Amino acid sequence: MIAFSVLLFPGFETLDAVGPVDIIGHLPQFYEIHFYSPGGGLVKSAHGVEVLTESLAAYQPGGVLLVPGGLATRQLVVDPLFLQQLKKTGQKSMYLLGVCTGSVLLAAAGFLNNKKATSNKNAFAWAQQIAPQVKWQKKARWVKEKQIYTSSGVTAGMDMTLGFLADLHGMAQAEAIARAIEYIWHADKDDDPFALEEN
Amino acid sequence: MIAFSVLLFPGFETLDAVGPVDIIGHLPQFYEIHFYSPGGGLVKSAHGVEVLTESLAAYQPGGVLLVPGGLATRQLVVDPLFLQQLKKTGQKSMYLLGVCTGSVLLAAAGFLNNKKATSNKNAFAWAQQIAPQVKWQKKARWVKEKQIYTSSGVTAGMDMTLGFLADLHGMAQAEAIARAIEYIWHADKDDDPFALEEN
Question: Out of B18, B156, B186, whose CB is closest to A49?
Fold first, then answer.
């Protein structure tokens, strides 16, 4: 079993975390889903969803770590303790997935230096300012850079997660899940309807 | 403030509930989001997300009630106590939203007699068998029947929720939220890419 772990923090964007989880949850034969937060316990999303988490102290290494975004990231990128915990956790993981401004957290923790990445186009100027060392892609539904995936805003995380599964398990598997959840999958990572301009 | 209430039960399909919540959560000036379950406390989704709920005894009447689906509905449609609780709760609500097989729960509780509705196309034969008194629509991303909205599978619930907001607050508001979450909104409720056949 591969651990699919989601790192939550107060004020996370609900769908950034839970959209991908629903998709991954369709492969229980491969993935075991965990929710973590630095201290464990209930963590409330930006929209009032209170989700139970385990403490990062119990983190299962070697799996997939997904980091959601949300307005709360504005504080977290200047929180050295959180960034250190994220860095340690990410280093124990095989794949990193950053959704929306979760990719800016990955950048601030040092995972995206001189690498291509993307983020929500509504927060793009901020991402560039916080992490100028990243090759931010202005036109990308999501970006794959070796073991690190980053997506555009919120629902792009679902498209990316299906793309991640397609890379690991084949297109047929990803398409079958999209059909099961009747999702009109935007499967071309380079076609970005919300692009600011060409790269 | 309008109460936007989601009725959870063990094994609910995660995204049926949480996709719409993220969307509604973008209008905190109008909607206050609540999660309920018959007994209150933590309720675990089909994909292991444990969400804190209030007891239905504390239900705030006069708002919107959303009912998600999931494989767990197979037991709930033959659970008279649950259906009675759903009926009482629905009768106190101004709008009813059924996502995926959540619409079959609304049907089993008696809200859809001789009314048009839809559900996940993968579960359609079952829906027809459980509730033959409903005018099930084989081709519909979602259906609006006065104060009752029902959607096709899982992610169709997000399209429906944006449609619901468009009906109440105008297209511009719904489109602004879709842009904020970079969602490629399938805004035509009658165009169903997963339709079994014409109605």
Answer: B18
pLDDT one-digit tens code per residue, B116-166: 999 999 999 999 999 999 999 999 999 999 999 999 999 999 999 999 999
Check CB contact under 8 Å for B50 and A46.
no
How high is the ipTM of this complex?
A: 0.89
CA distance A163 to A171: 8
Q: How far is B22 from chain A (nearest CA, A)?
A: 6
- Neighbour tally for A175: CB within 10 Å: 16
- Rounded-to-10 torsion of CA B15, B53, B166, B46: 10
Q: Per the CB < 8 Å rule, is A153 touching B180?
A: yes
* Cβ atoms within 10 Å of A77's Cβ, excluding its own: 18
CATH, range A2-180: 3.40.50.880
* Digit-coded pLDDT (tens) for A25-57: 999 999 999 999 999 999 999 999 999 999 999
Residue ranges of domains in chain B = 2-180
